[in-house]
Amino acid sequence: MHTRVVIAILVFTLTILTGCTTVRDNSLSSGKQREDKFIVHGIMLGDSTDKLIEKLGYPLTKGQVVETQSNEMATSYKYGELSFGILDDKVVSIETTDKEYKTSDGVNVGTSYVQLIRAYSELNPREDEEKEAVYIDENDKLIFFFLDRSFRVEQITYTYKSVFEKMSNITFDEIIEKTHASDTTPSALLTVAVLSDSVDDVRSLLDLGADPNTTKEGVSVLLLADYKNGTGAAKEIVEILRQAGAKVYNESLHSELSEAVVNNNSYETRELLRAGANPDAMVSTNDGEIEPSDGISVLWYAVYKGYSEIANLLLESGASPVDDKQIEMQASADNAMQNMDIDQMERLLNGGLDANGSTGFGQWSESFVYFSAARNNHEMLQLLLEHGANPVGVIQAIAGRSDLADTKIYTMLIDAGDDVNMTDSQGLTALMHAAMYGNNELVTVLLEAGADVNMKDTNGLTALDYANQYNNYETISLLQ
């Protein structure tokens, strides 16, 4: 099961228990038992509903009643920004988005990721790959900290592991497998502090010994701050890092170095590096295929293209090392996908290539599964699915284009477990797209697979509405 799928189930479970609409990721850990961690406004996990009402009065609103896998009834009591999940007349989860509430370790809504990790470092916090949530495991009890896009706490939830397992069909062992221990070292935290424009965190981490030349995936923290387009905090962070000893490069040479590397011009590359160009600069191409924001370093690009002389020049000038083997495998995979070379792709997959990988760069990147499905490459798609590729979302993505994929592709994706009722940002399903285009073969396949004809998009329209709108009369008869 994939990380995002596992975490989505976990968040959905907690949402049901507390009646909250926040959608985020999460994570785990083990540590010391301290009961005071789980008290909110005098209520703690395990308290009765009578005590809850005695302390806080009757709830302003109640959540929906849901049935657990063991046939118990769960609901939620909501008091403004505070929600309590109720099961068997006991409090089994507590959730708050109240900025005034603080945990016993001083963390509240608005606390930065860096401050959160430092507060709980002794309890071995765990997190998902995107740092969208962190969690602490204390025996059967859990504290979740869901983070916003600026890496600050936006929601705190307390619950039991046993309650989660009653409400879902996966175990916490599966969650643990898909998360990792948070890196609590100052240098690792420095990257997040820079990305979140937290001047105070940057200062405190440098005082604790963080390396001002820290890199992440080949990009220095100085360069990360510099690429944030001169915001006030970013400018201050750049200056703080420089004063702390971060390497200073001639930033005006970045685009020239990128061009020299892209053109495999070793002479120009050498001269630009001597003139102070940053060997960790990001690549950008004139055709717009690669932008600096795509995060592809010049060394990564040189290895990918097989420009060994340039790669050696960059390394000699201090470029942060990259995983040559992984990059070369990516290059081979891109070649196999572009040329529809089944044999080469099979060798790569058997050699450890992730079937859920992508081909292309940045905004032009497409998952292997989407790339194959959109080009009616049945054999390649079958190979990827046999090697564990996740098909979820592909049907919805390709159905929006009348010229992509035949019905066999859709059938293969359905058989592999894709969700025919998945929607895009406008609430459109594959069935709605098929109805628009009058693609009756696809309409039939989707209906047989359980597509919901009554689903509505954000404008309140169904597949039948679209068939009527586009005068697709045969489609209308199929949908009625």
TrEMBL record:
Keywords: ANK repeat, Repeat. The keyword Cell inner membrane does not apply. PANTHER family: ANKYRIN REPEAT-CONTAINING, PROTEIN HOS4. It comes from the Bacteria. This is Ankyrin repeat domain-containing protein. InterPro entries: Ankyrin_rpt, Ankyrin_rpt-contain_sf, CAP_sf, Multifunctional_ANK_Repeat. ANK repeats lie at residues 294-320, 426-458. It holds the Pfam family Ank_2.
